[in-house]
Design a protein that fits this description.
2 copies of one chain form a homodimer.
Chain A lengths: L1 H8 L30 E2 L14 H11 L1 H4 L7 H15 L9 E4 L1 H13 L5 E6 L3 H9 L3 E6 L13 H9 L4 E5 L11 H13 L3 E5 L25 E5 L13 E5 L1 H14 L5 H4 L12 H21 L14 E5 L7 H12 L1 E2 L1 E2 L10 E5 L4 H18 L3
Parallel strand pairs in A: 1-10, 3-4, 3-5, 5-6, 6-7
Antiparallel strand pairs in A: 2-8, 7-8, 9-12, 11-12
Helix pairs in contact in A: 5-6, 5-9, 7-8, 11-13, 12-13
């Protein structure tokens, strides 16, 4: 059992987003009093502030009333819903996706990511992942006994490109990397990869025969009219390419646990086989809710995006007013990755202090890469007013704990 | 990638329950005409014939209206629902289950099984599984690179005990088996393990330090007033024991994808870590439906059981009237495992013929163990009348294809 003890010792959950109540506050070196204010949990979006797509619950109820045909779908998802999704996602990405062989409905995008990784990573395979990137990526590589090859994203370097070190990526590919996994828009920084970056990733992956998983969870919420480039729509692209997307973020359908993966037939076929033993299928009735996705009332997505853009602008302005704080303006999605100046406490302590003294929950930077010891991530899909107040309290605590 | 190609070649899905539409009918050696009748899909229960627990949809809708707190639960499930479940399941099993450390809510019992297996099986570990038993068990061992040690269940030998070969089990344990996995009531035969069998399993597992996963999915639907023995309630039992149960079968909540695992703290902790990278959590809103479980209207479970018992009696009588057919009367759950006499076609062909000529879907016996080449499983949680008609057609086809 020793290999299991080692494996599970690397799979922590206490600092993961949404798990913060598992942390204890013992031994904190507190300075000063609590700052009162309404609690804000920036570890994930607030579906009370930004509600699910109108009609999504009705679609669920209709699914329940359909009975058995909706409860027991094929493992890869119900046929007519896969058809709907392939049509909408083909149009969205400007590609052609077969509903029968190139698409699978999963329990959340986390489910899609797990299936894709499990279908592509063999024992000892080298897997290139970006740092910083989604907190589960490294854990997934470890669980499947792969070897992590980190590639740096220098996201503070420019605002014209995400900042991927392409020379480093090619070096990694040259050493025999089998799989490259990245999120675009990047989680936790909210930056999007430029056209040139995506073209280069696609070209290099094809050249070195690297399988690619593109996690595009936030690809529908693009700010400032920026151009978003879909890797799957490029002429030159890797043989094995899986794209992941879902309605949990911008569309606030997280409570239904829905995700979609599409791409190379042979990998989708493996993912279906794996889903059969992992969880059988995405919840049958929940699948019915997918008919409200890409089917939002006119103007609804635009309103949602501009509301988020306004929150972003106010929060970024607040952070830019603090000496030593560095943050790149979110280009897509609802994340800000905030680098703070040197404090008198560790970041691990500071995020707890934030909870205990200001009722503000953020996610520690080291969840996104071991080197991000002085950063935290916030999801600003929150009530605008209370988010602003909460970041005001956060700024006060940064000042209070700043190392002189 | 070769290890992956091999691994996934063993993970078929085309013959798994509910996937039958993926089979083609080419080259079938058909005899005679179609027998008309209403289609019946015995691969799983019919939630139109036996509807979900009254109030379950209302509980879901309430969950949606609770908003963020229900959408984003802890990975192991929402605290107050875990409390509810631990109270009900402690009473049901006559044990004491801690809601904080000994219980996890999962996406279906399949999800629980995957997490339990992933938490207990290391590469090369020997895993004892019963034959016949749930179709995914062998696939899970293969996926986690374990080694399958089959133990025979001679379920036609007696009606006083399930028929586990305890000498064979002890021999397997002596050779260094790490994990023993079994379903009780057994899927696909519907037999339950006797008190002596459960005591022996518990004793041997403790003696040889074997971790045990007891899949008790159908443990609430017991016929003929039989006694059901919970392994977890025994004084002598293995250090690592995980019990799995869920509301997908008797209670017809399958469309919500809900399962529960409870047992040894250290294994539950691993399962939580694994869930964080597999699917994050069971659907948040769906979790709210668990408050209708063990909370059914008075008499509802009894009615459901007696309705199933009547269907069982009629179907068993039909099968007993056919020369050469062998079936043991279901003791719990809704399965019958039917051994048919020698036919002029293979069983793989016969199950397709059944679909094409009689609109009857059954699951081929080899999904439950490679030696069950002349058996099929039916789930008789169906409309009583149409189930009877469908089995009448099935019997006609057995006669038609019987080898003289």
């Amino acid at each position: 059992m020793d290999q299991l003890i080692e494996k599970f010792s690397m799979l922590g959950v206490d600092n993961a987003p949404g798990q913060e109540t598992l942390q204890d506050g013992e031994g904190l070196r507190l300075i000063g009093e609590k700052i009162p204010g309404r609690p804000v949990d920036f570890s994930h979006g607030d579906v009370n502030a930004f509600e699910p797509i109108p009609g999504s619950l009705d679609a669920f109820v209709e699914g329940v009333h359909l009975g058995g045909e909706q409860a027991y779908t094929e493992y890869k998802g119900r046929g007519n819903i896969r058809e709907w999704l392939s049509e909408k996602l083909s149009a969205f990405t400007n590609t052609t996706i077969s509903p029968d062989t190139q698409l699978i409905i999963t329990p959340g995008t986390q489910g899609a990511l797990f299936l894709a990784m499990g279908s592509l990573i063999g024992r000892g395979d080298k897997v290139a992942i970006v740092e910083p990137d989604y907190f589960a990526n490294r854990k997934l590589v470890q669980f499947f006994d792969g070897e992590i090859i980190p590639v740096v994203l220098d996201f503070l370097e420019s605002d014209k490109r995400a900042g991927l070190n392409l020379a480093e990526l090619e070096d990694a590919f040259k050493t025999g990397v089998k799989v490259f996994l990245f999120s675009n828009p990047n989680n936790p920084t909210g930056v999007i990869y430029s056209y040139d970056e995506i073209r280069s990733i696609a070209f290099l992956a094809k050249k070195y025969d690297v399988s690619v998983i593109a996690d595009q969870l936030y690809a529908r919420q693009i700010f400032d009219g920026r151009v978003y480039t879909h890797l799957c729509a490029q002429d030159t692209k890797p043989v094995n390419l899986i794209t992941i997307i879902g309605p949990s973020k911008t569309e606030s359908l997280s409570g239904y646990r829905l995700g979609v993966a599409f791409g190379s037939e042979n990998i989708i076929a493996r993912m279906e086989k794996l889903q059969a033993i992992v969880s059988l299928r995405a919840g049958g009735y929940s699948q019915a809710v997918l008919t409200s996705w890409f089917n939002e009332p006119e103007g609804w997505m635009e309103d949602r995006m501009s509301a988020h853009q306004r929150i972003r602008d106010d929060l970024v302005a607040l952070f830019h007013g603090v000496e030593g704080v560095k943050v790149r303006k979110t280009e897509a999605g609802s994340y800000l990755f905030v680098r703070v100046p040197e404090l008198r406490v560790t970041m691990r302590e500071f995020v707890k202090i934030l909870r205990f003294q200001a009722d503000v929950t953020v996610t520690i930077g080291t969840e996104f890469g071991p080197q991000f010891t002085n950063s935290f991530r916030i999801n600003f899909s929150q009530d605008h007013h209370f988010a602003l107040e909460a970041i005001n309290r956060t700024v006060q605590l940064i000042e209070r704990y700043r190392r002189e």
